[in-house]
Specification:
Blueprint (H helix, E strand, L loop, with lengths): L1 E14 L4 E14 L14 H8 L7 E8 L4
Antiparallel strand pairs: 1-2, 1-3
Length: 74
């Protein structure tokens, strides 16, 4: 069995129209075990697609870590 540990402390974008920074994800911590089912829900613009892009390694500009850890069976 494995565990996926998602810890994102910050993901921000710079708005090119006004050069202001917009924080999309802040202090997100999710730990998932093998065979768990997860559904991401939320309003438009809350960071669902951004999180999936980070998990797929399509977006690497964030502060935090994504780790796949083996889980020892006792």
């Amino acid at each position: 069995m494995s565990q996926l540990a998602i810890h994102i402390s910050d993901k921000s974008y710079i708005n090119p129209a006004n050069n202001k920074t917009k924080q999309i994800i802040k202090d997100l911590k999710i730990n998932l075990n093998n065979n768990e089912f997860v559904c991401l829900v939320g309003p438009s613009g809350c960071g669902k697609t951004t999180l999936l892009n980070i998990l797929a390694n399509l977006d690497t500009k964030f502060s935090g870590s994504i780790e796949l850890q083996p889980k020892h069976i006792q």
